[in-house]
Amino acid sequence: xxxxxxxxxxxQCWYYNCENFVDxxxxxxxxCGNKKGMVEDYKELNKEARQIAVQQIxxxxxxxxxxxxxxxxxxxxxx
Length: 79
What we know:
- By secondary structure, the chain is mainly α.
- Helix content is 68%, strand content 0%.
- Helix 2 runs antiparallel to helix 3.
- The protein starts with 8 loop residues before the first helix and ends with a helix.
């Protein structure tokens, strides 16, 4: 199966059958302990969608601890 790359958030929502890709897929993987899966989801996005995803992560209501935000951003940037 070919790797998915360069997709928009709306394409990802359609593919994963969800309403909010960041909350429903990426952060779900993180919260379940599948941090590598979250990074793979992030790599499927195009540049603009990645910027929007990071913004949505910062605005997420249930990520109040700075250490959690730092962990997510470090994984997205360097894994």
